[in-house]
Amino acid sequence: MAAAATCGTGAGSTASMASEASKSNVTSFQRRGPRASGTDSGGTRLVSIAGTRPSVRNGQLLVSTGLPALDQLLGRILTVIFFFFTEEDKYNIYSPLLFKYFLAEGIISGHTLLIASAKEDPADILQELPAPLLDDNCKKELDKDVYNHKTPESNVKMKIAWRYQLSPKMEIGPVSPSRFGHYYDASKRIPQELIEASKWHGFFLPEKISSPLKVEPCSLTHGYLKLLQFIQNIIYEEGFDGSNPQKKQKNILRIGIQNLGSPLWGDDVCCTETCDNSHSLTKFLYLLRGLLRTSLSACIITMPTHLIQNKAIIARVTNLSDTVVGLESFIGSERETNPLYKDYHGLIHIRQIPRLNNLICDESDVKDLAFKLKRKLFTIEVREFLCFSLQS
Amino acid sequence: MFPELNNLLNITPDRAEQGKLTLLCDAKTDGSFLVHHFLSFYLKANCKVCFVALIQSFSHYNIVGQKLGVSLTLARERGQLVFLEGLKSSMDVFFQANEEPHPLQFLREANPGNLQPLFEFVREALKPVDNGEAVWKCPVLLVDDLSLLLSLGVGAVAVLDFVHYCRATVCWELKGNMVVLVHDSGDAKDEENDILLNGLSHQSHLILRTEGLATGFCRDVHGQLRILWRRPSQPTAQRDRSLTYQYKIQDKSVSFFAKGMSPAVL
User: Which UniProt keywords apply (chain B) (predicted)?
Assistant: First the structure.
């Protein structure tokens, strides 16, 4: 796990509207024999699946988060079978975007989706996914935005700390659109025909849960238990765990779980500091991690950690996850009116990156990252201002 | 294993000490490279190893092990390594019927009382083979990681009891070694974890504590390693010996250097 983040950002402060994302890597599919380009018929198990790319570093299959800029920060790429765990920002505006980008990327790549929510009907969530930006439109949009952005920057050269001035701009443009990682227009909805062509499963808790009177006491909250069984069934029936290998083309299962830990799931971890079900959430995550580790799946989870009273649970959840990313929105905070932050909507904290099948991880050198939602695009940039104040 | 770390600890695979409990602790950083070190070290030292791997899969350790020169698959096949893969069996154990015993059966229980089945698994795995021939050198128990047991509902006291029973059997009776990893929750005020960490710190002969740098992220120095040699069974007036180094993790090795002496800085 990387050392503590940069100056200025109180990563653990309860006042911050931090949202965190974490992913956990799950795969145990690995290449045997020499590292060929994948055309080996003798025993290689890293088949080529749409929307994935094999990692040269650790033999993992990699998928995109739906935000190429984020892919790059998270060690180039998100490896498959991860817990992608995000804390929700306080007003729940930006982290649902990450959630939706992840799912939209799944649709574009032809992956199967599994959407679980206790709050919103998964069918409705699907309707709200962003539309993909087509290649030529994409370039035009980005050029426009980059141009608008660049002009004020060049005038403030003298105010920028030399350290930041010399570091490369992180802003990513779709320079060479590829099938790995796409760009999305947050202002438009995904076309209906793409949804209809996709394969997805929904888990809407109010529909799935039976009357509480019939429930036997168990170490897991009833909602979590049902969800776990649901996910296990899908993985088994559709062969994501390698059962029925000859049945069909291998594919990735993208799982999205919304608001995990909230009272809507029947968990009281957000309600009290010492809750009865204090282990329910972490146990669920562990079992889910085990499920994901033995199947071809990637998972994104959003969690309202700013509501969780007991900070120790957040630490435990972080240890159970592979990647943790923080989104700190400026809305409603004093930073909203701070002139230093005027170009941005919030900060991104990459809190944890996994070391999967490796001693090292691909950490980005840059830790001061801010994001902004431009008219259409969600971009991530190096925070270009001083972290100490200058006397003007 | 990392030769530089062996030098710092003054051990070699030929001259491994016996009867010791080593505590690995990480605070605000990832100390798992130490687990890989000790796993490959003891396999190279021809010890029989029982690895309770709760947090990562077999293939993860195997792939890293290959970079460090050991094959876990081979070790497992010839009986040198007994590997309990928590993640793989977790779902099966959880949904299994209550009567079937399993080392991880505490997963099924709402309030697990103790880790006796897990201890019995370890004892069975490391007990000497009856044919009288000493095929392997001393037995070693490796656990990654103990803090996870707290997340799964086991109490800190139950975990400490488990460690105590394992120490009695593995370290004292079988003259073997134990290496366990515990996370330090730091600011998060995880009381149960603190109890576990403090309890183990007092019992350990060697503590390796990795910490992130206080000043934040650095590309060339990944963290700081504090090595503390202790003599828990002897009340001693002399201070335990302690050394601090900084380290940088590379693809197949870890380099250690004195504070401020990173090659990048010099």
Answer: Cytoplasm, Nucleus, tRNA processing
